[in-house]
Amino acid sequence: MRRASSADLEAPRVKLVTWNVNSIKARADYVSLFLDAEAPDVLAVQELKVDGPNIPLALFEARGYHVAFHAQPRWNGVLIASRLGPIEAVHRGLEGADEGEARLVSGVTGGLRIVNLYCPQGQRVDSPKFPFKLRFFDGLRTWLEQTLDGSPTVVIGDLNIAPGPDDIWAPERFADVPSYHPEEHARWDRLLALGLSDVVRPHVPPKTYSFWDYRGGAFHREHGMRIDHVLANAAAADRVEGAWVARDWRKKKDGLTPSDHAPVVVQLRGA
DNA sequence: ATGGTAGCACGGCTA
Question: Is A90:A106 a contact under the CB 8 Å cutoff?
Fold first, then answer.
């Protein structure tokens, strides 16, 4: 554990991570390994999959992180952990667009607004989940229009959209499939039109992925997608020094099963 | 071939 205040003065740099962990309960030991090895300043977690006492908050608190979360049993669930300081102005949920599911938590920490998202996956285009996904993005845009105020902000998380052909292993196979559908790309473009930019894309080579299905040996076949994102408004994007996918954390560690997503890391200059 | 794997209210659903 390190002393937050003096260390931050010595190294004015913020290491921001987004990671869909596929159950914070099943991944508690694995996430602990990650925190000790990578020491993020802010970690945005998606897919908690548990609520209440089943969330192992102690693993964050024991390492000096402040925590804010929005959770439900079984599915979804998002959490922000920060050692920049307390998390203030916390907002939970996307009223009118999330159908009561725990998919958005936001807060301000260290002078940075974090909007942490777990967007719907969409299942198949002919399932009710797909129009729900599109409505969620429409509601998100409306909410961001009202929320973005020019202060440094990142919109971060598992957006379940691969924005371009370099972000998915076989774009031709996904032309009519959620994660790479034209209707989703239209929503992506509308988010960017709010003044947000994808601050990871310029720093990673084409065909860099953040998610590989557990099934069919997808990781070893490099059958992946880049669906975990960090979007930043101008005030935050100006501070980005680098970004990468921590691909090694998609592998087993000490015999522990990994998530099907790797952490995505963005390094920012301190304020 | 409607699979394959992992996780959650233990078992159908979600990804």
Answer: yes
Quote the Cα angle for A214-A215-A217, to 5°: 90
Per-residue tokens: A83: 């050692």
**A187, A137 contact by CB (below 8 A):** yes
Where are the extended beta strands (E) located within A131-174? 153-158
* A257: nearest nucleotide, CA–C1' criterion: B6
What residue has its CA nearest to the C1' of B9? A74
The model's pLDDT over A45-90, given as tens digits with 9 standing for 90+, comes to: 999 999 999 999 999 999 999 999 999 999 999 999 999 999 999 9
How many angstroms separate the CA atoms of A42 and A14, rounded?
8
Model pTM? 0.95
Rounded Cα distance between A185 and A230, Å, is 16
Orientation angle between helical segments A129-147 and A182-192, nearest 10 degrees:
10
Strand B: which nucleotides have any atom within 7 A of a protein Cβ?
3-9, 12, 14-15
- Give the angle A195-A200-A202 at the CA atoms, nearest 5°: 90
Q: Supply the DSSP string of A67-135, one letter for each residue.
A: EEEE--SSS--EEEEESSS--EEEEE--TTTSTT---EEEEEETTEEEEEEE------TTSTHHHHHHH
Tokens encoding A45: 């977690």
- Say whether the CB atom of A49 is under 7 angstroms from strand B: yes
